[in-house]
């Protein structure tokens, strides 16, 4: 059976994994097959120590147009809570991320969404669950839910205000209007905006810089900090950071971080 996800490797040391949603004729609208393949691919890449950064993008003109309408029409209501999607993630078993798409924050490696076209509904959910969002000037965004008789699903009502602020979040969720790329950059929905031809090369260059020059151990810990801190007060965040710093100072990557700086040479981080 043909796969609906394409996996390639990029970068100087091939440490960047590129996951491409691959149904271009449907603007990469999500099916249950694609959803299962995406989750399995990310879990496999998390266990692969040769991978340090993941870039998620779409084939053709779209990033992801949401759930395929043909599947949505026959989707049983219970699918939203089906056990097959809810198996536990790592993330120190944090209850906040034991959810359908919790495997995005649970992954130890950064996920950068390279949004090349329309991102609607679940496509926007995938973008928000990614660590960073780089977009093409041809990208557009829509929550879509209210125009389908649905609601703000998969925690997006919690995530979106933290990205764009409560007023913009209410606008995007209530109206489900199409937001052009320039406005998405202005309100903070995306972090960088590129000419369409430059989106993937620039995103891969950034990802490769992370893969070659930054400690993968450090990124893994910092990512976990960033996703955990919304549920912590300052005292807990500081205590957790102090414990992580104590462990970091004893790591091989810390020794290498000091050595390559003193010796003025490229870093050779191992992630240990």
UniProtKB/TrEMBL annotation:
GO terms for biological process, alphabetical: fatty acid beta-oxidation
Enzyme Commission code: 4.2.1.17
CDD domains: crotonase-like (cd06558)
UniProt keyword terms in alphabetical order: Lyase
Gene3D superfamilies according to UniProt: 2-enoyl-CoA Hydratase, Chain A, domain 1 (3.90.226.10)
InterPro entries tied to this protein: ClpP/crotonase-like_dom_sf, Enoyl-CoA_hydra/iso
GO molecular function, one term: enoyl-CoA hydratase activity
Domain of life of the source: Bacteria
Enzyme class per UniProt: lyase
Transmembrane regions: none
NCBIfam families: PRK06210.1
Name used for this protein in its record: Enoyl-CoA hydratase
Source organism phylogeny: Bacteria, Pseudomonadati, Pseudomonadota, Betaproteobacteria, Burkholderiales
């Amino acid at each position: 059976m043909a796969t609906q996800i394409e996996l390639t490797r990029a970068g100087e040391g091939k440490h960047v994994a590129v996951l491409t949603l691959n149904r271009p004729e449907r603007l990469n609208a999500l099916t249950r097959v694609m959803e299962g393949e995406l989750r399995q691919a990310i879990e496999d890449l998390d266990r692969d120590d040769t991978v340090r950064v993941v870039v998620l993008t779409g084939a053709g003109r779209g990033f992801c147009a949401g759930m395929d309408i043909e599947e949505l029409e026959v989707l049983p209501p219970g699918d939203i809570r089906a056990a097959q999607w809810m198996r536990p993630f790592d993330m120190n078993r944090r209850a906040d991320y034991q959810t359908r798409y919790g495997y995005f924050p649970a992954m130890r490696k950064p996920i950068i969404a390279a949004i090349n076209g329309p991102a609607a509904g679940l496509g926007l959910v995938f973008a928000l669950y990614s660590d960073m969002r780089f977009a093409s000037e041809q990208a557009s965004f829509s929550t879509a839910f209210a125009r389908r008789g649905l609601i703000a699903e998969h925690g997006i009502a919690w995530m979106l205000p933290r990205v764009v602020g409560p007023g913009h979040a209410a606008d995007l969720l209530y109206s489900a209007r199409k937001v052009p790329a320039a406005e998405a950059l202005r309100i903070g929905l995306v972090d960088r905006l590129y000419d369409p031809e430059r989106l993937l090369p620039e995103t891969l260059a950034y990802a490769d810089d992370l893969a070659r020059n930054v400690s993968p151990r450090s990124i893994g810990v910092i990512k976990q900090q960033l996703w955990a801190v919304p549920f912590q007060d300052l005292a807990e965040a500081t205590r957790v950071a102090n414990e992580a710093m104590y462990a970091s100072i004893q790591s091989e990557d810390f020794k290498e971080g000091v050595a390559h700086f003193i010796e003025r040479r490229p870093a050779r981080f191992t992630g240990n």
